[in-house]
Specification:
This protein is an alpha+beta fold. It has 2 domains: about 100 residues, Ribosomal protein S4/S9, N-terminal domain (Ribosomal Protein S4 Delta 41, Chain A, domain 1); about 80 residues, Structural Genomics Hypothetical 15.5 Kd Protein In mrcA-pckA Intergenic Region, Chain A. It has a 5-stranded antiparallel sheet with strand order 2-1-3-5-4, covered by helices on one side. Helix 3 crosses helix 10, helix 4 packs across helix 5 and helix 6 packs across helix 7. The chain is globular, with a radius of gyration of 18 Å. Belongs to the universal ribosomal protein uS4 family. It holds the Pfam family Ribosomal_S4. With S5 and S12 plays an important role in translational accuracy. This is Small ribosomal subunit protein uS4. It comes from Candidatus Roizmanbacteria bacterium CG22_combo_CG10-13_8_21_14_all_33_16.
Length: about 210
């Protein structure tokens, strides 16, 4: 089951901004002020030292919430990655990065992955000219991503996201106006800069 509770609570629990709130919003500003304060009435009082398994769990949870996945989805991505010969962490990252909702977000077409997932679910996104309603759809190299209707770009949050001049796209993506494209193979660089993949792999390898 996907988590539907307070999003700032999740980011504070993990100690990092997981990108669950719109950048520049009051909600994100509030989060950044309290990012180092654990949620809960008693704060850090009475908290035990985290075990190795606990560290693995927390790193897995951070990655899962970052991409907005259920536990079963995350586990399935790992199972597919571990079946391949080579770098399991790289294969896992590539699979996560190629999700349609993530690509829409990385292209700067929405302010958060949650909003990207909502647009996809409501068929506001087209891939190669065809409407796609599955956030987990695997985007392939050369696929063109765009809004299904021009009216979608008039939504204030979407319009602001698309018009962001400071956006830096990953090397594997291209975007002209409101049309984007997966231009090359995804890498693990962006994920590895924020998460310890070794701990995630160790958690699922038990």
């Amino acid at each position: 089951m996907r988590y539907t509770g307070p999003k700032n609570r999740i980011s504070r629990r993990e100690g990092i901004d997981l990108g669950l709130k719109t950048p520049g919003s009051k909600a994100q500003a509030s989060l950044l002020k309290k990012i180092n304060i654990l949620p809960g009435q008693h704060g850090t009082k009475g908290r035990r030292k985290v075990s190795d398994h606990g560290k693995q769990l927390r790193e897995k949870q951070k990655l899962r919430f970052y991409f907005g996945l259920t536990e079963s989805q995350m586990k399935n991505y790992f199972k597919k990655a571990v079946r391949k010969t080579g770098n399991t962490g790289l294969f896992l990252c590539q699979a996560l990065e190629k999700r349609l909702d993530n690509i829409v977000y990385r292209l700067g077409m929405t302010p958060t992955r949650a909003s990207a997932r909502q647009l996809v679910t409501h068929h506001h996104i087209k891939v190669n000219g065809k409407s796609v309603g599955s956030p987990s759809y695997v985007v392939k190299i050369g696929d063109q991503i765009e809004f299904a209707k021009n009216s979608t770009t008039k939504i204030p949050a979407i319009e602001k996201a698309v018009g962001n001049k400071d956006l830096i796209l990953p090397t594997w993506l291209l975007r002209k106006g409101a049309v984007g494209k997966l231009n090359g193979e995804t890498t693990s660089e962006l994920i590895e800069n924020q998460f310890n993949l070794r701990l995630v792999i160790e958690f699922y390898s038990r």
